[in-house]
Specification:
By secondary structure, the protein is mainly α. Helices cover 62% and strands 2% of the residues. The chain contains nine helices and two strands.
């Protein structure tokens, strides 16, 4: 840590503050997206009171809060702060802050850091939703892929970037195609949402080259496999039990991205 310069500290603190602030708005969106495929996005608290908006604010319903999953005032009677529901807001905010700070530490002041900081909260949101309902909504995965390629195209024309946009494009196509093959082979083990998620992960990892892409992909399968084995050993699941794979793909991609950014 003695080698840190003042601007390095400012960069880390700024990234952490950004992640923490944006992370406050993730839980409510996660709550609203955490429904079965045939159901509309959730617009009420667990007891049926209307919640307004996706990211906070009172909206049109009295059950709305300011940030996070909202605090339902009707559920809590006269307590002005209301009762929390959905994902834990401080925990999600802290996790997002940590993710952003680590990305800043690995990437430094290179222009692609702005891309990682913009995409990181979306990755956290996808991980939370998939853990809750084993679903990766198209409205999140497809914009992730498009935004990754578009934003990286902007980073590619700025000085001092450390990646390659064409490799990012090829990485998105290659990883998406690879996951599609796995989906065709075993649709019960690999959801089509994972295939769409792979497009965005392939773009992000491909930015730093094929080695980073392979590393991040391997890490995702490793994390998922270890989690599944842990459940089996703990007798909380069987060999045929379905588990959410998206969070581990995202975690593996995050690890690969950190290593790729640090070594670039």
């Amino acid at each position: 840590m003695s080698g840190l310069q003042p601007y390095d500290v400012l960069l880390l603190v700024g990234a952490a503050l950004w992640g923490g602030a944006v992370g406050l708005f993730v839980p409510r969106a996660a709550y609203r997206f955490s429904v079965d495929p045939e159901e509309p996005w959730a617009d009420r608290c667990p007891k049926g009171h209307v919640i307004g908006g996706w990211t906070g604010g009172r909206g049109s319903g009295r059950g709305s809060g300011w940030v996070g999953p909202a605090r339902c005032r009707e559920c809590a009677g006269r307590m002005w702060w209301g009762r929390m529901y959905g994902p834990n807001t401080p925990l999600v905010s802290l996790a997002t802050a940590l993710v952003c700070a680590l990305l800043a530490a690995a990437t430094g002041t290179r222009p692609e850091l702005a891309v990682w900081l913009l995409l990181a909260p979306l990755g956290v949101l996808l991980a939370v939703v998939d853990f809750r309902v084993q679903r990766l909504p198209d409205v999140l995965t497809l914009p992730l892929a498009g935004a990754a390629l578009l934003l990286l195209a902007g980073a590619a024309v700025t000085p001092e970037h450390a990646g390659d946009w064409l490799t990012a494009l090829y990485g998105a196509l290659a990883l998406g195609a690879g996951y599609f093959v796995l989906f065709l082979i075993n649709p019960n083990g690999m959801g089509f949402g994972d295939v769409k998620l792979a497009l965005g992960l392939g773009a992000v990892l491909g930015w730093y080259g094929w080695g980073t892409l392979l590393l991040g992909t391997f890490a995702g399968f490793l994390f998922g496999g270890l989690y599944g084995m842990g459940l089996v050993v703990a007798r909380r699941a069987g060999r045929k039990t379905s588990i959410p794979f998206g969070p581990f793909l995202i975690a593996g991609g995050f690890v690969g991205l950190l290593i790729g950014a640090y070594t670039a």
